[in-house]
Amino acid sequence: xxxxxxxxxxxxxxxxxxxxxxxxxxDVQAGEVFGLLGPNGAGKTTLLSIMSCLLEPTSGExxxxxxxxxxxxxxxxxxxxxxxxxxxxxxxxxxxxxLCFFGELFGIDGAELRQRVAHILAAIGLEDRAADRVRTFSxxxxxxxxxxxxxxxxxxxxxxxxxxxxxxPQSRNHIFEEVRRLNAEGMTIVYxxxxxxxxxxxxxxxxxxxxxxxxxxxTLLRLLQTLxxxxxxxxxxxxxxxxERLKELPDALLCEQENRLLxxxxxxxKLALVELMRLLxxxxxxxxxxxxxxxxxxxxxxxxxxxxxxx
Amino acid sequence: xxxxxxxxxxxxxxVLRDPVSLLLLFVLPLLFxxxxxxxxxxxxxxxxxxxxxxxxxDLDHGSGLNPGEPWSKVxxxxxxxxxxxxxxxxxxxxxxxxxxxEHKQAAILVFGPNFSERINRCSFLADGLNPFHRDGVYLDxxxxxxxxxEKQPTTSAIIEQVVQxxxxxxxxxxxxGRAFERLSDPEFIQLLGDKVxxxxxKQFQFMMRKEKIQLGELLKMASGGNVxxxxxxxxxxxxxxxxxxxxxxxxxxxxxxxxxxxTKSSEEAREGAEVxxxxxxEGSGLLRYGxxxxxxxxxxxxxxxxxxxxxIAGWVFVAxxxxxxxxxxQAAPLTRIHILMGKMVPCFALSVGQTLFxxxxxxxxxxxxxxxxxxxxxxxxxxxxxxxxxxxxxxMGLALWIASVxxxxxxxxxxxxxxxxxxxVVGGCVxxxxxxxxxxQFITLLTPQGWALDAYRELLGGSENYQPxxxxxxxxxxxxxxxxxxxxxxASWCLRLE
Lengths: 311, 498
Known about the structure:
heterodimer, A: alpha/beta, 14 strands, elongated, B: alpha/beta, two-stranded antiparallel ribbon, about 60% helix
């Protein structure tokens, strides 16, 4: 069995009496986009800091390509690019100067550096503002540059810490596109967010973290499958025979609610809906009201942690 | 090394693109020097000289009591020996006129070209010049003027009184001495002989055929008509009169011609009296180029603002932490040493650059000397550089120490501001050490600013011929370097990169 690209094993981190991370373990496979979903203060940034050599865990271990990630290890940092939550840029340098500066810190210079910087500026859509000081940029442009800076040294693992906080939809899409493009080129990405939609849209596997604990870690589909969907409807006329037939629908559980509202709890909402429509047609009953509730990460999070994602 | 250079370039770019930093490091110190330079007087920073300053313009080229020495020199000497008086001579008439016009001097004593000739003519004789009036000496009669500033009537009146007394002390003994000499002149004996009528004793009246006889006639009779003998007797009478008067007034030397000789008070003459040559210490032009006060102001403000680096470096460091770029630096393959060097080197370079800029600007704008005129620029730089480097080392150390303990811009402003301002005040950057009470002056040396000032003043504060004291420079440099190294050690220990 081959080792995972990134292995997080039993990682604990405490600040005095406060436990920021509590025995967190998961793997990230090469070439996947792994999402870390959790509310503010859940421990995502601490975990990312440990993964990017900025913090030593109190106990446990992180391995990248089988090599332990240690805060003093300079070589392993060359494999990692980090996009911090804050806009970690020099406002009085231009976009190009920011990119060149961080590139030079990784030992890239000359024509190669110029070429990479030009490529990144094009990728993040800031070619025409390359010579402008960052302080003149909009929040979205700064976010894009914040991402670009992490890419100059072509890392194999990209850690994004809430990269879309406070950005406009256009820049957000730009960042999404860039993340997808990088992933398509083979880059492994860890994406933290408290926006369920972002994680759902970008990540193939998701870890749900709350109060320093990893509550679940799986593919989106499997996480969603842990909760049933629901179809709420009213039919006319409602006969006792129809009620019996509805109870017999496969993989569905019928509950009666107020005001003649019926609810079918089902694992696969789409399949159950097809079966329901077929039955109603066969029985000659008319559907007068329909509500569909598919499982989503919000409900999964609520289910796993007992609180809303944005609490 | 290239990583450090990358960090240094970035840091310098950031500071040099920040108008507030540039203002604080380069513009404000010059502005302070300029503003203070325009408002403080030439005596700023020096021990106050409370003596009355009398300026002289000496145009007298005659000869007086001593061959080749004009009478004006005698008056100068007399003034200089007067307690509480400082005498300065001015070479150029235009300078004297300007000083009065610009209200920089209350009065200037001008000896005209005929002063010696007029004094030589002063005599009690009928054909002599009588310079006296009820209150003193007629200045115009002896070709003396006293130029006065109308705005300083009290001081000029005091100066006039002092001058009058001095002139009396010079002219009166001269006239008395000359008069006393005349007692042995044949003309005077002739006059005496004519004026003194003596009664003839009765037993000789039949021979003289008169009851009274003139002294001159008696002497003539005594010489038996011999002209030479008559002259000899006349001389004897003159000498006798002089001797009798000398004996009568033996506490005085009536032939002395000077106050000291006349009053036999030579031994009481004040020692160390000096006549200084007037030098324009105020400086010239709009910026008062070459003004003496810049010798104090430039070191004071150079040293004070070099230590403002504490604030700049602190702000830059804290901003790096707040913006998250410090995290990014840590995520790059850098060591703690890289990051520290990346801060220290630009701090040091900025400080050295700032000092050299201020020193060059001060030399160019205010005419501040970097050492004796006999030194070449290379020599001056060679002496200056160790002081600049050691001061910057101390400033950099303190800057990084503050940066290492401050967690926010506000803390930098509070800790750094307090440190910089308090040390500047205590160190003598606001009030020169010379103006502090002597028993508290040592306190300045408890601060790096005090030591830096010592060194800079040694180089910048001397006259054109002053040879700086190498021991003072060396001692200051060693202390500053130690402060720098100690602060850096402290900063390295306290520095929170996380």
